[in-house]
Amino acid sequence: MTSKKLFFLAISSLFILAADAQVTSSGGYDWRDSSVVPPSRMEQHFEFVNNQYAFPAKPRSQWEIGLKVGTPSVEGDVDAVYPGIGFGIHARKALGYLFSIRGEYTNGTARGLGGNFIPGNTVAVGNGAWEKYGTAKKGVWYNYKTNVNELNLHGIITLNNISFHRAEPKVLVYGLFGAGLMFYNTKLDVDNNGTLYNFDASQSKSTIKGLLDGTYETKAATSGNKLKPTTSFGFGASFKVSNKVNVSLEDRMTYVKDDYLDGVKYYYSGGNQIVSNRNDTFMFFSFGLNINLF
Question: What count of other Cβ atoms lies within 10 Å of the Cβ of residue 245?
Answer without folding.
Answer: 12
